[in-house]
Design brief:
It is built from 1 helix and 6 strands. By secondary structure, the protein is α+β, with helices and mostly antiparallel strands.
Length: 142
């Protein structure tokens, strides 16, 4: 299947966001994000929102930086996990509405931060598998 996005997806591990339905459905949930891209977010859930539902996404920024508020609409729903794609999960994707200049800069910085954070987490797992959890190097090897 050809990728239709113009930007890469950043796979996330255990990152959550608050989703608030703003149009027709009373909805206020904290959901795990599976991945993010420049234009959207995919959320893991067994209870997806309907297509075209408008949502507000509240992301807690790292440290004491506050909350980033994004708005978008549900553009894709995955009702079941696919046997053809072992990484597929149930949930829904939202396409973000265009961001103002400042919000876009914060969103881009958040995506870079999350990508780097995931690289560190995965690298630590690989090191732990290779050296064992108690034998991980505590200082650089050079």
């Amino acid at each position: 299947m050809k990728e239709r996005r113009g930007d890469i997806r950043i796979q996330l591990i255990s990152e959550k966001a608050r989703i608030i339905g703003v149009r027709s459905i009373p909805y206020d949930q904290i959901l795990e994000m599976a991945d993010i891209s420049r234009d959207g977010i995919f959320f893991k859930t067994d209870k997806p929102l309907p297509p075209q539902e408008i949502v507000k996404v509240m992301l807690e920024l790292p440290g004491e930086l506050g909350v980033l508020e994004l708005v978008g609409k549900v553009c894709r729903i995955v009702w079941k996990e696919s046997k053809k794609r072992p990484t597929s999960v149930k949930g829904f994707a939202i396409q973000l509405y265009p961001l103002d200049f400042n919000t876009e800069k914060i969103w881009n910085a958040y995506r870079i931060y999350m990508r780097n954070k995931q690289i560190v987490v995965v690298s630590k797992r690989i090191i732990d598998e290779f050296f064992g959890p108690s034998k991980s190097p505590t200082r650089p090897l050079y």
